[in-house]
Amino acid sequence: MPDDLPQTMAAVLTTGHGGYEMLQYRTDVPRPEPKPGEVLIRVGAAAVNNTDINTRIGWYSKSVGGATSDGGVSDADDASWSGEPLKFPLIQGADVCGRIVSVGEGVNPVRIGERVIVPTMQPAPGGGPFDVFTVGSECNGGFAQFVTMRGSQAYGVNSGLSDIELASFPCAYSTAENLLHRADVKSGETVFITGASGGVGSAAVQLAKRRGAVVIGQVSGEKAAALIELGASRTVDRHAALLAELGSESVDVVVDVVGGDQWPSLLNILRCGGRYAVSGAIAGPMVGLDLRTLYLKDLTFLGCTAQHVDVFPNLIRYIERGEIKPLVAKTFALKDIVPAQQLFETKTHVGKIVLVPPQE
Q1: Which of 174, 224, 288, 358 is spaced 20 to 30 Å from 47 by Cα?
Q2: Which region, left, alpha or beta, applies to residue 207 given φ > 0 means left and ψ of -120 to 50 means alpha?
Q3: What confidence tens digit (pLDDT) does each residue in 61-99 have?
Q4: Is the pTM of this model over 0.70?
Q5: What angle separates helix 50-57 from helix 337-346, to the nearest 10 degrees?
């Protein structure tokens, strides 16, 4: 372990399920040490994501049926990605960008100094393809000056982008790429993306366009121009009636992170044989399904959490080739995590809000 590394660090501790009062910024948190096979990363930046807030308020519990904006808090034992009780205090932060400053036994020391980003959704050691855990939920994440990570899950990235820009990619863009990969989106197909101005939605717009798809983004009217600039062929206001705007059987794929009351109309705009891929439900997880629509239209439903092994390596290549661009709305110091999350929850921005820990 390098002699110049501090023994303590700044970090935000989530002390339990609840409101902002559960977030404690501390400067005396013991710095972690890498175990065998792990690396120690000095965090350069970490973005804010829905999962950070959903985990804190316990939204993943089956006892919660409302939208994430309802602010309901559950401290039930199943209020986590895995459905298992979380261990508090927890350092959240699903996005991590930084440099390796130390390595554990079995990791080549040549990696020290390497700039890395890490996948948010990680495979459980020795598990099957759907055995995963989430950074900042089932293990400590990036809302700190330092974090340890398995060396195999710290991906080197060679890019002229800043740490702040790179921190905007891992969670949102890997989620979006996984949705498109699982739905097998092809060139020339029409893709409808809900929540298209958010982190995952705006990433999906870029990534679907990269695949040669015709992209329709659902967004508030004032954000429409930004979506067109990102590659959407057209936009639809989030309050508009989809059937009236687009017509029935007008799209090949729906990429959904919203859910809620509009959900049945998403199936109506799908063509026969269409695919529906989902990885979020910020407007509410409880929806009404007419099974006749599902089977008479030969639709395919895809729940997308575990990520295909190609998703994150592909994302690294897209970044290094400049095929996708970061979209950062605003940055905050790590100590200002509460106003950062408050701004995030207003949904008035396009792109990502990024936190920067002390760099000394």
Answers
A1: 224
A2: alpha
A3: 777 767 666 666 666 677 666 767 888 999 999 999 999
A4: yes
A5: 100
